[in-house]
């Protein structure tokens, strides 16, 4: 049984395209103006991180296998493949890692307010977000899928079949945006945390939940009574997820891209992904 799951996970990992440096979201603001920012007291550039001795990462730990809560020796811990990447980056910088869990729609605000140095949260670098933050190269790509109640997949095979039903999405996510372009506002329910959406689905408060395909696939393996909608996959026009940092963080961006490239070359991101799925399944 366990072996079967692991095999499945490896298959998922193989399908999920790991893409680094594919999308040119690494456009830096290379200019002198930004250089000055590095000298201000509140700057969260590389020097500031090194001098405080820790990298403070913001995440919304409700998105297994990216980031989620688990128990280690009876203690609550945030794990996931994003967190492993963050851990590697902190190690490369020679600093400690601190992970702050918050609502997904509060992450960019926290970054602006210098509450966190970077965001590792499966965040998609949309044009809108790029107005307020810089992003690393894309390190993972996935599509979006609807989770349904088991047994309802046969009758819901296209977007039209979901019209008039309640669609659950995470507040502030791109899935919320996708839902808004496809469904009536009154048919969309936005919640802060993804597991609450899954609960609402089981309790018939929503009829479908839209999340990244990797999250959908894991959710249905972990939960009884839910299934992934077939043939209803939505491609991600923004190309996957990346790490966010304050605008003008040119050096930080160069360094995180180096770590990502190294991890990719060593096939580590894939390994972290498989490992995170395993931990989530064993919970
Ligand atoms: N990729 C989507 C976005 O950027 C959803 C990410 C949700 N992440 C999370 N940790 N809950 O909007």
From TrEMBL:
SUPFAM superfamilies: Periplasmic binding protein-like II. It comes from the Bacteria. It holds the Pfam family SBP_bac_3. Residues 1-24 form the signal peptide. SMART domains: PBPb. Keywords: Signal. The keyword Signal applies. Residues 54-276 form the Solute-binding protein family 3/N-terminal domain. The keyword S-adenosyl-L-methionine does not apply. InterPro entries: Solute-binding_3/MltF_N. This is Arginine-binding extracellular protein ArtP. It comes from Clostridium puniceum.
């Amino acid at each position: 049984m366990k072996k079967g799951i692991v095999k499945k996970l490896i298959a998922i990992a193989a399908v999920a395209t790991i893409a680094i440096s594919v999308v040119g979201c690494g456009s830096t603001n290379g200019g002198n103006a930004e250089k000055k920012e590095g000298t201000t007291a509140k700057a969260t550039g590389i020097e500031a991180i090194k001098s405080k001795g820790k990298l403070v990462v913001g995440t919304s730990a409700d998105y297994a296998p990216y980031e989620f809560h688990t128990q280690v020796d009876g203690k609550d811990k945030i794990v996931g493949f994003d967190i492993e990447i963050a851990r590697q980056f902190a190690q490369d910088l020679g600093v400690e890692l601190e992970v702050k869990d918050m609502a997904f729609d509060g992450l960019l605000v926290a970054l602006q307010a210098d509450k966190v140095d970077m965001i590792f949260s499966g965040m998609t670098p949309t044009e809108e977000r790029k107005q307020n933050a810089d992003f690393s190269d894309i390190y993972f790509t996935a599509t979006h899928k609807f989770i349904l109640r088991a047994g309802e997949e046969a009758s819901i095979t296209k977007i039209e079949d979901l019209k008039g039903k309640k669609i659950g999405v995470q507040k502030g996510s791109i899935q919320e945006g996708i839902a808004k372009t496809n469904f009536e506002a009154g048919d969309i329910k936005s919640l802060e945390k993804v597991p609450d959406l899954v609960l609402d689905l089981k309790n018939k408060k929503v009829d479908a939940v839209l999340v990244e395909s990797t999250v959908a696939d894991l959710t249905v393996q972990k939960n009884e009574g839910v299934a992934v909608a077939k043939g209803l996959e939505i491609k991600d026009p923004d190309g996957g997820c990346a790490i966010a940092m304050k605008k003008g963080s040119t050096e930080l961006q160069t360094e995180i891209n180096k770590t990502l490239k190294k991890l990719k070359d060593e096939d580590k991101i894939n390994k972290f992904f498989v490992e995170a799925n395993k931990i989530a399944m064993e919970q």
